[in-house]
Amino acid sequence: MDVPSRARGHRGGRATAPVLVAAALSLVLSGCSAADQPLDLGTTTAPQQVQAATALAPSPPTWIEVPRIDARSSLVPLGLNPDRTVELPSVHEPMQAGWYRYSPTPGAVGPAVVLGHVNGDGQDGVFARLRELQPGDEIRIGRQDGQVARFVVHRMAQEPKSGFPADEVYGDTADPQLRLITCGGAFDGTARSYRDNIIAFATFTGTVPSG
């Protein structure tokens, strides 16, 4: 799964070392190449306005749950490889999701980014059904401080990897946001990769009880 983009480092909406401000980084995700069927978003409803809640103090995430698509995973922190591609969970563990640690922590101001495989190693991945999400659907993320951040999807997008909307995904926001990213679209047999990315855009709406 490839997500070519300009990735920006954030902590509460501000760039952090070692990711330099305005550095052009290519996030390359591999392993979404175990199937040959299209994974298209299809017809979607219009974007939905969601009122953002007051931001939380930073705290690393520990798990994610997306009830509509029966997805749940612990979250591993993902950094950058020496070639400035994003570090990913192993393709041999396609049900493992990860948080890009140079993005804000979920619930803090800015766009937290969570990445997951659609499939890998001949198995479905944690975000195999991400394309089924709709505006209004809930996403929950547990944090190290014990709080569970609740997000509501306000928009779904399917974008070609050649035109990845980096500013929309990684650009600073005035309130706490979340982006979930995986592969989709037609399968390119030569490149052994899907041609598009499926992106869920969500807004932080507050905390909920754990469990």
From TrEMBL:
It holds the Pfam family Sortase. The keyword Transmembrane helix does not apply. The lineage of its organism: Bacteria, Bacillati, Actinomycetota, Actinomycetes, Pseudonocardiales. Keywords: Hydrolase, Signal. CDD domains: Sortase_F (cd05829). Residues 1-34 form the signal peptide. The keyword Transcription does not apply. This is Class F sortase. One of its GO terms (molecular function) is hydrolase activity. It comes from Saccharopolyspora hirsuta.
